[in-house]
Amino acid sequence: MKGVTIHNFCYSYFKVCLLVMSLAYGSAEWDGSSSQIAKTIIVNPNDARYFKTVQSAIDSIPLQNQDWIRILISNGIYSEKVTIPRGKGYIYMQGGGIDKTIIAYGDHQLTTTSATFTSYPSNIIITGITFKNKYNIASSSSPTKPAVAAMMLGDKYAIIDSSFDGFQDTLYDDYGRHYYKRCVISGGIDFIFGGAQSIFEGCTLKLRVGIYPPDEVYGTITAQGRDSPTDKGGFVFKDCTVMGSGKALLNERGNLIHVLSFTVLCLATIFCQLVGMLGKQKAKSK
Question: What is the pTM of this model?
């Protein structure tokens, strides 16, 4: 199959992200030399010519792959847990949009095993997909447990126009340099956490602790895993919007806020500027 250039906007955003982070962390070039898609494989459970599940498409990619392979995922809800194992990098997962291509499951208990989507290798691009953990989303009747929608464990990721939906520990952003653009991240407790080096630009953070009675619980938007001042991990939120209902901390050391809607510009998870806030804010020590 003749090579096709990677979707220009996605590849360009990733290159800009890596350039910014290379100023602090050294070289950020792609590990591979080609910016061409060598092969496209399709997931469509309604067509016998194509793969029925996302996982089966990933399984078909050879280990130690060095060529960009696009997985084109047809619209629909895929009820499965999906893992990209080590040694299967250079994958471009492309869906039809966050309300059209949804990968959903309901596992819970442990952050390390409950993720609907887990990605280990480096060099991954994702566009137009929702990753959802259904546990605890609809009601407060079940005990609150860690229920991860996506666990990101590799270096050099670009995630564009995608969504991460859950309640506790939605996005486990644990290792590597990642760039999130125009993504929607929903949850109630520590719903963006981990030790990665990530930029969130133009994203929407949706708080949903309003399902609980007033004053029963407040949420925490971020729980970044820096253990010391020399730790290289950190989250940068640029021109992001926080919306939803309930009380929340921007992070575990931040201010308690009553959320309706506001824009947030964070240079790190320990310093944020709120712009155009429609809710109330009051200081709370923890």
Answer: 0.81
